[in-house]
Amino acid sequence: MDQLDKNSLKPVFDKMLSKEEKEWLLKQHSVMIWLTGLSGSGKSTIAIALEKELHSRGLLCCMLDGDNIRSGINKNLDFTTDDRIENIRRIAEVAKLFMNIGVITIAAFISPEIVMRELAASIVGKDDFLEIYISTPLEVCEKRDVKGLYSKARKGKIDDFTGITAPYEPPLNPDLTIDTSDITVEEAVGRLLELVLPKIDTRR
């Protein structure tokens, strides 16, 4: 039996309903809201609060979180450089599927390298990619240490831990920067709404 190869694949995207037709049905424009920052910076907390706020306004959205993805679709990946890049690539491809059906997608991932975030933006489309830098200082993140990861990294129990034994590359030109050490979650969501609502709510 002949084996399939990539050259034999024939995508039918052009025959499917378009993203614009699905957005019209939902009365919204789908974008990728990508939150990046150190572990403990507040990414997931803000993403959860933003999802709830958008939902309360009648906007359909989906949140993708690092722990959820790592325990599911990417459970076979490790934390090597290649696996981290593949992790981001898969996340972006999943996000693109959601966006193509008109769903506003919120992602909360450390994604420590600029090249990783550029990869995600190239997959979902740079025009619909909003990079949000949660810039909470390392010392604040480490004091929170909700999962005890910083403590383990300091003791040498975790290799290549971002912020301790591995670098974090801040975004060069983020669409928005939020430091959760000096504002509340509600204030952070308020700033995000100012940025995203004009772009996503077509009922206005």
Write a concise synopsis of the structure shown.
The protein has helices at 19-26, 43-56, 66-70, 81-100, 114-124, 138-144, 149-154, 185-200, and strands spanning 32-36, 61-65, 104-108, 129-134, 176-178.
Protein described:
With 204 residues, this protein is α/β, with parallel strands linked by helices. It has a single domain, classed as Rossmann fold. The protein has eight helices and five strands. It has helices at 19-26, 43-56, 66-70, 81-100, 114-124, 138-144, 149-154, 185-200; strands spanning 32-36, 61-65, 104-108, 129-134, 176-178. Strands 2-3-1-4-5 form a five-stranded parallel β-sheet, with helices on both faces. Helix 4 (81-100) runs parallel beside helix 5. The longest helix is centred in the middle third of the chain and has 20 residues, at 81-100. The chain is globular. The mean pLDDT is 91.
Topology:
Blueprint: H1 19-26, E1 32-36, H2 43-56, E2 61-65, H3 66-70, H4 81-100, E3 104-108, H5 114-124, E4 129-134, H6 138-144, H7 149-154, E5 176-178, H8 185-200
Unreliable stretches covering 5 or more consecutive residues: none
Radius of gyration: 18 Å
From the 3D structure, determine the CATH topology: Rossmann fold
Query: Which second-level CATH architecture applies?
Result: 3-Layer(aba) Sandwich
- Which class of secondary structure composition applies to the elements? alpha/beta
H-E string: HEHEHHEHEHHEH
Average pLDDT reading: 91
- Counted by DSSP, the helix tally is 8
| First-to-last CA distance | 56 Å
- How many separate structural domains? 1
Total number of beta strands: 5
- Biggest sheet: strand arrangement: 2-3-1-4-5
Strand content: 5-15%
